[in-house]
Amino acid sequence: MSRTSRHLTPTGTIQATRDRRRVAFATVAGTTIEWYDYFTYAACAGLVFGALFFEPAGEGISTILAFGSVGISFLFRPLGAFLAGHFGDKIGRKPILVITLLLMGVATALIGVLPTYAMAGVWAPILLILLRILQGISAGGEWGGAVLMAVEHAPAKRRGFFGSMPQIGVPIGLLLSSGMLQVMNWLFPGDAFLEWGWRIPFLFSIVLIALGYWIRRGVEESPVFTEIAERKEQTSAPVAKLFARFTPLVLLAALVFAGNNAIGYMTTGGYIQNYGTAELGLERGPVLAAVTWSGVSWLVFTLLAGIISDYIGRRTTYIIGYVLLGIAAALTFPVVNIGEVWALTVALLVLTVGLGLTYGPQAAWFTELFPSSVRFSGVSISYAIGSIVGGAFSPMIAAWILEATGDALNIGYYLVGMAVIALVATLLLRNRNGINLRPTQEERQRTGIYIWQKPLDETRR
Fold it and tell me: What distance, in Å, lies between the first and last C-alpha atoms of the chain?
């Protein structure tokens, strides 16, 4: 028997505290770097890409096209999720994490050296979009591997906490991105930012990717997948099996995530940054500072939500989160429209409470929802579809709503609607705290998923 198998507990997790901490650190570091790259692009789409890459389309349309380039990457997340899910369920979680990290880093660094439209004409936006597509493929495969490594190593009663580790990497990535852009805005004020300042955060990705690769390559494979491999039970076509047996679950899980993603991408997708500077006339530096503070708050509530979900359940945490998020979404633009930086900051801070509560428990809940043989495919593809339905084009939709109606309050109605849809999907799923994750329990993992099914027998977990 292998060393990893000897450490497996009856619930399919690993006992060694040092191993769990190493995995937690690796998932935080890797996810932070991946999303630093992703958010840097989204922020620059709102701040500079319209003028530098899409200017001939005209002022309003160039902004919509810039946000459209943000959304295009989401269309390729399912491809990344399908590839990562297929190979992650066949060859393991760890190799996929290393590959996605390198792919994201190379694409991001190349964006930093792209010529603008003034230099290369139509080839500039084409190359920008192609590199954004590579970012989308990488992001589609990254999340599933990171959360499974974190949750499948965790003690059953602390999966929410350990699962929140890759989740907090996202707001940390936002913090790092907005902080770097603030520094560049200070070092390269005015036109200098448009000429050179925006490029440096993309080039800095090279340093981060080297660090992330060094951290991730030293992490042990998930103990659950190790047992699957030892038993030679890898599924030959995990994606086909997933959709043959669990299509309703994939769709519901995607909708659970869609509400959080649609509302969250008002900030992480660059829309608020553009709205504050272009529509309200606020200075770029204070707006980026407001986003940075919202990243801190989002981090805190994401971590807190993961911990809380270990006590009150993932589903209950989500229900509370979506109620708060819907209220906050309705109030965001009325508060932002006060036209002061403090009002923008308050609106974003309030929004992050619900965002954290509907994001922190996601890793643990998605992992507990899907059976072991299709788990990587299930969590990755659900996440990718939810990203398309929710966040893919929410900044673009917001820009279109404002262009069409002239009133940002209408954007709030759209966001509240997304929160309601996600809440309904949440109510249709059962809580799964503590379910046995081992491959020997696959049959039981298929039961008690939906509210119309009988709940799991608590005494047999």
Answer: 24
